[in-house]
Specification:
The protein is an alpha+beta fold and 210 residues long. The chain is built from 3 helices and 7 strands, in the order H-H-E-H-E-E-E-E-E-E.
């Protein structure tokens, strides 16, 4: 066989080998699978985590509203009553982690219930009493009250609730979790104010302003 014929044969064989290799799709599916699966897993777990966070956020809103609503329905409350309100409110977050009661719910839940008095002169909301995980100091002002609620000489039941949501899979959200919180304002239902009774001591004024 002439050298030129051998060169042509080799070139033809290489061409057919390259053509067959390009046309061979047996490994395409495996390659696509290797690229797509990680992305699909991230999307799946991300969707699950964000949906759970939205559900918890809704429950936090319900907790804040329930805590203020239960408190506003009583003409007076003592420590035992407030503890009961927190216990009932804490059940809303189930089936997510509820923490412990000591006597108010603690991590991952936290909450505070306060009564505010809108000053006749300054029209600022001042704390009369406060109980919870982080109670506010009496006679301090709450500046986040909506202006529509600042009616001079009136009282407000103010609840604050937060929840530390920790994702099950910590790759699509912060592993430490995110803090979800909400507040609620309610007018006293049975009287002008909700009187706080500390032990056996009853305040001299039916509705204290300081």
């Amino acid at each position: 066989m002439r050298p030129t014929a051998m060169i042509r044969l080799r070139r033809g064989s290489l061409y057919r080998l390259l053509r067959d290799w390009i046309a061979d799709g047996r490994g395409v599916a495996a390659t696509e699978f290797a690229f797509i699966v990680p992305l699909m897993l991230v999307m799946f777990f991300g969707t699950v985590e964000f949906c759970s966070a939205i559900a918890v956020n809704r429950k936090v809103t319900l907790m804040a509203r329930t805590l203020s609503d239960l408190t506003s329905q009583s003409p007076s409350v003592a420590d035992a009553d407030i503890a009961t309100f927190f216990t009932v409110t804490n059940k809303i977050i189930w089936p997510y982690a509820t923490g412990t009661l000591n006597p108010y719910f603690t991590s991952p839940s936290s909450g505070t219930i306060s009564e505010l008095y809108v000053d006749q002169t300054t029209k600022q909301a001042r704390v009369i009493w406060s109980k919870g995980s982080a109670p506010r100091t009496a006679d301090t002002y709450v500046t986040t009250v909506p202006s529509a609620l600042l009616v001079p000489g009136t009282y407000l039941i103010f609840s604050e609730v937060s929840y530390q949501y920790v994702p099950t899979v910590g790759y699509v959200m912060a592993k430490a979790g995110v803090t979800l919180s909400d507040v609620s304002y309610t007018r006293p239902r049975q009287s002008s104010c909700v009187l706080y009774i500390a032990g056996t001591t009853t305040p001299s004024s039916p509705c204290p302003t300081t």
